Amino acid sequence: MSTNWRDRITENAVELFSHAPDPLENTFAYPRDPGLFGPESITWLVMSDVASFIGGIRALVVQAAHPEVAAGVSDHSSYEQDPLGRLSRTASYVTATAYGSMAEVNQAIRAVRFAHRPVSGISHRGKEYSADKSDLAAWVHNALIDSFLTSYRVYGSRPMTEEEADAYVLEQTRLGSLLGAEPLPSTAKSLSSWLTIHPSVDSSPAGSEARKFLARPPLPFFVLVAYKILFYAAVATVPRELRKAVGVRSIPGSRIGGHLLIRVLRFALGFSPAWGAALDRCEEPRPVKDRIRDTSGATR
C-alpha cells in the first residue's frame, strides 16, 4: 500500500471532521493536566482507535430509538442541511471531553448545555421533551458510551477484558454527572441492559428520518462507499430491539466488512492525534509500538 494512497485516506478523513474548531488547539496551555480521565484510563485507550468511527455511527442509530430524543434532533438540529458541521461539532465534543484538560472539558460541557437550553417540544406521541431533562441526557450519553465500548470490543485493536469494560463505563459516569445525566449505569452489562429494555424505546417518524439519513448521507461517492461499510458494521452490533425501533436490518457479512475496513483505516491513519497531543501535554511518552499520525499524514 503506497504512502500516497494512505495520505489520500488521511486527507479524506480529516476533511470530514474539519468543519469545527480544533477542540485541543490550546491544550498545551495546561501542562500536566490529565483532564477528566488521564493517560492510564481505559477511555484514552478506547478513543485512540479508529473503531471509534463505528462507535459514533452506532450511537446515532441507538439514539434514534428513543422517540423524544429523535424528535429533539429532528426539530432543533441542522444535521440534514449541515451534516459535516454537526459531525465535526460532535467529534469536537467527544475529543475535548475525552482528551482535553479540565478547562477544555468544562468548556465543551458548557457549550453543550448552552446549546441544549432551547431544545424542547412535544414528540409525535404527545410526550414533552427537553434536552435539559436528566433522563433524556442519560439516553444520549449512555448510547454514546455503550456504542464506543461495543465498537471497540468488536472491532478494536486488541481484546478487552470484562474488568476493563466495566472500568471504562465507570470512568464515563464522571462525564455523565457533569452533563446532569441520570441514571448512569456503572458496569458494561448494566449499561447495555438499560438501553435495550428501556421502556421509552419505540419507533417514530423522527427516528425513521434519522435512520434514512444515516443510511445514506450526502457524501462523495468513494467516501460514501466506505461509510456504508462502517454503517452496517455498526448496525450489526446494535441489539435487535433497538434495530427494530429504528427500522434498520443487519446485513450478513457486515461485521467481516467492518473488520477489514477498520484494519485498512488503522494502517492508513494510525492512532488518534488527539491522544498524542494529550500524552504530550501530560509529559507522558508515546508508546513506541503505536503510530500516531498528525493531520498532515506524517507519522509521529
Write the layout of secondary structure elements.
Layout: H1 3-16, H2 42-48, H3 51-63, H4 67-76, H5 83-99, H6 102-116, E1 120-122, E2 128-130, H7 134-155, H8 162-179, H9 188-196, H10 205-215, H11 221-235, H12 240-246, H13 254-269, H14 273-281
Antiparallel strand pairs: 1-2
Helix pairs in contact: 1-13, 3-7, 3-10, 3-11, 4-10, 5-6, 7-8, 7-9, 11-13
Provide a descriptive summary of the structure in words.
- This protein has about 300 residues and is mainly α.
- It has one domain (about 5-20, about 35-280).
- The protein is about 60% helix and about 0% strand.
- It has helices spanning about 5-15, 40-50, 50-65, 65-75, 85-100, 100-115, 135-155, 160-180, 190-195, 205-215, 220-235, 240-245, 255-270, 275-280; strands spanning about 120, 130.
- The protein has a two-stranded antiparallel sheet with strand order 1-2.
- Strand 1 (about 120) and strand 2 (about 130) form a beta hairpin.
- Helix 3 runs antiparallel to helix 7, helix 3 (about 50-65) packs across helix 11 (about 220-235) and helix 7 (about 135-155) packs across helix 9 (about 190-195).
- The radius of gyration is 18 Å and the shape is globular.
